Structure formats: structure tokens, C-alpha cells
Amino acid sequence: MADKNGTKITILGAGNVGASVAYTFAVAGTCSDIVLVDINKAKAKGEAMDIRQGVSFGENVEIFDGGYEDAKDSDIVVVTLGIARKPGQTRLDLAQTNVNIIKEVMPQVAKYAPDAIYVVVSNPVDVLTYTILKCTDLKPNQVIGSGTALDTSRLRSIIADHVGLSPNSIHAYVFGEHGDSSFIPWSIMNIAGVPVDEYCADQDHADLDEDEIIDEVRKAGAEVIKRKGATFYAIAMTVNKICDTVLRDSKNIITVSTMINNRYGISDVCLSLPCVIGSNGIEKEVSPKLNDAEIEKLQASAKALRNVIDQIQF
């Protein structure tokens, strides 16, 4: 593959998620070069060929299959390695299997692309983001777990449907684990600066049920898996947003999973809180003022993740 001035993203894993991410990059014109790497070389080649054959109708993107060494000079490496979640399985059930895969592959890839920003998508994403930081010399700002970025998007869509607005006008977040202990910090949720409950009352919308909404957000992925066997489009759009933000140095604030140290009484665990994302990856951490009940929920989420980390063989 010829060196050129452009932006290069390597995607590790060419399964449903990896292929959908590559397709989304190609359609959006997010980068100039995409490399797909998979243990199943024929699958990676087939996916690359399939996308390449359509680019004359869109943005000009070079897309190849390759090996770990082809990650060299990547601006971003997207990690979709591992076994996907099956119906009825929690993300944490996958932990040890996928930790083992990450431990084997990531030190090799990091050797070829030590300066890249790594966007981790594989589940359990918080545990695997932590694993990558432990098994490589990558710095915490370089490793971004997709975390609750997707949960946040799901939450905004749910509230937008309820109040009849665009999800872009809903300022709401999901914090904590990308999983069963996640929570919504209701106290900071607003629409045009108006607290959501107040907005609903002013505009004659029915009240929102907090428990119902967090339940719907948490189960959203499992519901899709139950019906179609896997989730990949929404996460591909999420990853594209994160990568586009890095490549454009956009300084967007996104809830992503990152190593937490001394925030809200939490340390040495990866979970999602708002971060400013730019060309250096995690540029700044944002710590909104939460009430005591919310801090308790965040700490409980950290504890749930810490319990898993403590049981894993790194």
C-alpha cells in the first residue's frame, strides 16, 4: 500500500461490526484509507472488495485487507475483535474470552501503531479498554472506549420521540458502565436549558418515567439482538462520529469510556463520563455537578466493573 498524505484508519475485526464501521467510513468519506484486519483473511478481503466496488458512486476511499503490520502510520485503530454477544448473554459474560484475545493481539498492533488513537468497540467495552491500557504502553488519552456514547444516543432518541423534537435538541447522557449498571444523571438533563421534567410540564407532554427509560436504554441492544441476532448499524454510526471528531480535531464532548482516576471518588477503572475529544484523543475530562444519589449510582457502576476486573486473569 503506497504512503500518501491522507487519513488512515485500521479496523481490527471484519465481522458484522467491523464491516459496518468500514462501510460507514466509506459512505461518509471519513478517511482516505481503510485497512481491514481479521484472522479470517478471506472475510476481510471480501468485505474490502465489496466496499471498494461501490466507491465510484461516493467518496474516493482506498480500502484494503491486511495484517497487523499494516496498522503502521494509522491515525486511528478501531478495535472490534472478539466474540459477539449472543441472545440472553450479558456483555460481562464475554469478559475473559475477549480479554484473552485482546491480550494476545493488542501488544502486536500497538508496536506498529504506537501513536494512533485507539477506539475500542468490543464488549465488555469498559473492561477491554482497561485491558488495552494494561497490556500495552499506550497512554490513557490514546484509548477511547465507545462506552455509553451509543446508550446516550439511544436515550436522546427515546426522549425526542416523547417530546416530538430532534434528538440533537436533547441534552441528556448515560454515565457509567456500558451495561446493566449504567444510569441517567437526571439532574443535568435539559432541553434548551430547561430541565426535561419542566419542559414536559410546560409543553403538556406526559411525565417521563425515569425507571422505565433507563430500563429501555439498557435493554435496547439486547432487544435488537433478540430480533436480528446482532447489533451493528447504530454502533457503526457512533464509531464514525468518534473517529470523525478525532480526525477533524472537533473538540466535541462525547460520553466515552476512559481510565478514571480521582473523579467522583473513583479510581483505576474505565467507565463513561463526558470527555472532550480531538486529535489527541481524550483532550479533557468534564465532571458535571451530580447530586448525591447520582454519585452513588456512578460509584456502584464502578464497583460492578471493578468486581469483574478483579476476577479476570490479565
UniProtKB/TrEMBL annotation:
SUPFAM superfamilies: LDH C-terminal domain-like, NAD(P)-binding Rossmann-fold domains. NAD(+) binds at residues 13-18, 38, 43, 68, 98, 121-123, 146. GO terms for biological process: glycolytic process; lactate metabolic process. InterPro entries: L-lactate/malate_DH, L-lactate_DH, Lactate/malate_DH_C, Lactate/malate_DH_N, Lactate_DH/Glyco_Ohase_4_C, NAD(P)-bd_dom_sf. The keyword Oxidoreductase applies. It is found in: Cytoplasm. Pfam families: Ldh_1_C (PF02866), Ldh_1_N (PF00056). Pathway: Fermentation; pyruvate fermentation to lactate; (S)-lactate from pyruvate: step 1/1. It catalyses: (S)-lactate + NAD(+) = pyruvate + NADH + H(+). Allosterically activated by fructose 1,6-bisphosphate (FBP). Beta-D-fructose 1,6-bisphosphate binds at residues 156, 171. GO terms for cellular component: cytoplasm. Keywords: Allosteric enzyme, Cytoplasm, NAD, Oxidoreductase. Gene3D superfamilies: Lactate dehydrogenase/glycoside hydrolase, family 4, C-terminal, NAD(P)-binding Rossmann-like Domain. Substrate binds at residues 85, 91, 123-126, 151-154, 231. The active site is at 178 (proton acceptor). It is an enzyme of class 1 (oxidoreductase). GO terms for molecular function: L-lactate dehydrogenase (NAD+) activity. Its EC number is 1.1.1.27. Residues 148-312 form the Lactate/malate dehydrogenase C-terminal domain. It comes from the Bacteria. Homotetramer. Catalyzes the conversion of lactate to pyruvate. Belongs to the LDH/MDH superfamily. LDH family. PANTHER family: L-2-HYDROXYCARBOXYLATE DEHYDROGENASE (NAD(P)(+)), L-LACTATE DEHYDROGENASE. This is L-lactate dehydrogenase. It comes from Ruminococcus flavefaciens 007c.
